Fold:
Amino acid sequence: MRDVDDVVQESYLRLWKACAAQRIRSAKAFLFTVARHLALDHVRRNRVSPITHFGHLDGLNIIEEKAELIDEVGRRERLQLLADAIARLPDRCRDVFIRYKIQGLSRKEAATQLGLSEKTVEAHTAHAMRHCETFFRRKGVKGIFDHDTR
Structure:
């Protein structure tokens, strides 16, 4: 029954604040309107996200708090972001970027494999880098390999 007490208390508090700010014609009508809105908000909130109180979460031992584990999760998330950014590149640009920046081929080797000039490889790479940077910025990531990414 704690929820009912909370609604009643919050209703009276809002009535008191409203009376202090301005004159209210019918305190009773205002009180019941506020109480109804608070109760509906409570029902909606519990329907969307029912949260059960567990007490202290420290004793649950859900996941180990190791720096290596946290770093690994962060690395995987950043790599997935990089893969998503690369997947959105135009086909030719993606091929160039993967060969030159991911596989580590020289500009000349990438150009030869793809039948392009080295200058074209350089242009596609610059385009891909700008695209990835914009993609990361939109996702709120400062740097793909930095530890301070958000």
